[in-house]
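Just scan this pair:

***
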Amino acid sequence: MKLRLLLPFAALPLLAQRPVTFEERSGIALDNGKIELITLSKGGAFASLVLKDDPDKLSPMWNPVRGAREAGDPPRFGDSLGHFVCVDGFGPTSREEQAAGFQGHGEAHRYPWEIVEQGRRGNETGVTFRVKLPVVQETFTRKLELVDGEQVVYVESELESHLGFDRPINWAEHGTIGSPFLAPEKTVVDASVGRCETRPHTKMPPNRRLVSEKEFTYPMAPLEKGGLANLRAVPAKPDSMDHTGCLLDPARRLVFVTALRTDKKMLFGYLIRREEYPWLQEWMNYSKNLNLARGLEFGTQPFDVSRRQTVEMGKLFGQSAFRWLPAKSKIGTRFLMFYTRVPDGFLQVDDVRQEGGKLIVEDRKSGKKVELAASKPL
């Protein structure tokens, strides 16, 4: 897949793109009058997404810097805010890789991203970033686009190898929601998944609720103390950390994951090309101090483990646990991200699809649906 740059550019309308500071980190804001997205200059994380007419400016994105500050604790997660990309690598690294300077979750989120193109084309506002990954000898390019009047962010990415041999790569979109959007018994997660497995664990984490390395069907997962837990919502009394891997529905070309704040009637979600991201991982970090985080991590592998482990795993449920990057070649991905209000009585997401220039989001139990303009097909 060849990434298409936004060319040619016209003059920018006032405030469509502007430099910003978010939690003392530099970034760029894209604004189309409906939504505003802040992307950090270092690491390219989507740090904030808000509806322009929301007086509370409630972003679904995880902000551990704010959480630590409010709790009086030192920040724990470095530049890992909101939705950040883990490429090429997801999870811990081997002793030899560490000695070579290769750290966990890949290199892309650790370096400053260069803006190579930005501007307007017709009714579209966009920016294209590029970052070189020195240890793995790859270049990562990401283009973001907003269309006037839409509540959708279009994300197109490309990974280029500078090496002369094929290699297995790990690529995950570490989409992460957090408090205050993520709240006990008020925020529910739905996805087009079925077969799942709990992450294999030995001693960690100590506050794990779920049985290690156990197959289940989402959302009902097996508890260590017996019985099942419904994973859609945060428990009433949070104090746990768990991790699961789920196979995105192989019968669908486009798959989804959503997070609905039921009391505020606000819905955040992704529509994803399954052939490029066949797995959904959920990292459920539910601390007692209510600095909650939940990873909606779609990617090439079922668990956040090293490259060596994914290659040794080979497949799970018949689906590969890694993706090939051919020698001196490029591979790409596309997905979209949306944020909207839902009507009264809308309590779950049974389907998200794109047809006729629209995103259609359905709660079949209530018979309610949301339709959003989405003019750029996946």
Summary: The first strand starts at residue 17 and ends at 22. The radius of gyration is 20 Å.
